[in-house]
Amino acid sequence: MKLLTFAHRGEAQAFLAAYTFKAVDFFFDGLLKSDDYYLLITGEGPHVASEKTIAVLAKFSEEITLVYNLGVAGSLNQKLKMHDLLWIRTSYAHHAEKLEFKSYSSDSLKAGNDCMTAFTRVLDLTEKTKLSHFANIVDRELWAVASAANLFKKPYLALKIISDEMKEVEIDICKFVKEDALLFSEKLLREFQQAELLQVKSVSPKVDSEFLNDSLFYFTVSQARKLNSILLALALKGITEQALIMDSEVRAIKVMDKLPKERSRLLLQFLGEKLNPISVKIRAGIENAVAPLEAAKISATFDNDFEEDWLNISMKIQSTRDLEKIKNALKIFSYEDFKKIFDGHFNV
Fold first, then answer.
1. Mean pLDDT of 176-180
2. pTM score, two decimals?
3. 195-241: per-residue pLDDT in tens?
4. Helices 142-151 and 46-60, interaxial angle, to 10°?
5. Domain coverage including residue 32
6. Is residue 100 located within the same domain as residue 159?
7. How far apart are CA 102 and CA 305, in angstroms?
């Protein structure tokens, strides 16, 4: 069993939806359990995070083998931008204008950033600049969770997503984080599942997918790798390949009057959206944004994996009227709005 810790329920909501958690009858609220994980909502700040994590580890120490801390953090580096995902290397703490003596290193092999846990909220640029000499990001709980894990000799991993950049905070950052909590949580879940997937792959045989042997589909080598990756991730959520084969959407794709390669693309799109439901909203937002271009018969394509915010457009001009339509469509289309969709700013 692994213990997943979050400061707030909003940061954990995608995890709560992805796995079947039930509340644990404990000394306080906020502890839940699934088949593979304990999930703890610690509350904000190092004191309460320390107390609750220690209490859970004391009670379930024999079951828990590893501790995760996941959630939002502020940037202390100009290069780190909103929604960047970071695995943490070392956790430090800053209290009463001085650094705590102890620091805790994580067990992550892919970590390259350090985190400073502050005992008070860090909002002004002067204070951020001071802390930037010691770490790339700042949060309110990690050091306390890492300290508790160390006390019980448990390894820990920490994954953070940037919620505010290296600048003066002029908005109500707590309100902003709450409004974008679902997006933050979905992104954390996706990266978390990829990390868990790597562990599953290290002990599990290669997936021998029935889709790969189905003549109705044609997968390139990279598509086959992607298919296996998605199927393993879906298996972690309790969704089997057999259940997917019987899904009405998959059946509909199989009987489409399209080439096998196109059916494969549509299948991967469907499975990807099954794994990450928020991608459905992103796709709908993008399609809405490029609607003016499509209306003018401008072909607009984009990265189907939503990893990069590029847009490729092509058009055919056969008359002056076509040219005017294209010019008007390009005036209406907002590339900035298109880019914002990739950061979760959509309304569909």
1. 69
2. 0.58
3. 887 665 444 444 568 898 888 999 887 788 788 878 887 887 788 89
4. 30
5. 2-200
6. yes
7. 41
CB 344 within 8 A of CB 83: yes
If one counts every other C-beta atom within 10 angstroms of the C-beta of residue 336, the result is: 6
Secondary structure element (H or E) that encloses residue 293, with its range: helix 291-295
Backbone angles phi, psi at 31, to 5 degrees: -110, 125
Of 178, 200, 222, the position where a domain reaches its end is: 200
**Burial (Cβ within 10 Å: 0-12, 13-18, ≥19) of residue 92:** buried
In a shared domain, residues 305 and 209: no
**Length, in residues, of the chain:** 348
Q: In three state form, how does the secondary structure of 47-74 look?
A: HHHHHHHHHHHHHHCCCCCEEEEEEEEE
CA distance 117 to 95: 9
Q: Give CA separation, 10 vs 17, 185, 265, in Å.
A: 11, 7, 33
> Last residue of a domain, which of 141, 170, 200?
200
Q: DSSP label at 133?
A: T
Same domain for 196 and 285:
no
Element containing residue 275 per DSSP (H, E): helix 260-275
CA distance 77 to 131: 10
Q: Are 93 and 116 in contact (CB under 8 A)?
A: yes
Residue labelled with tokens 């692994």:
2
171 and 266: one domain? no
What is the rounded CA–CA span in Å between residue 192 and residue 210?
A: 26
- pLDDT at res. 171: 53
Long-range contacts of 199-203 (CB under 8 A, 24+ apart): 200/232, 200/235, 200/236, 201/232
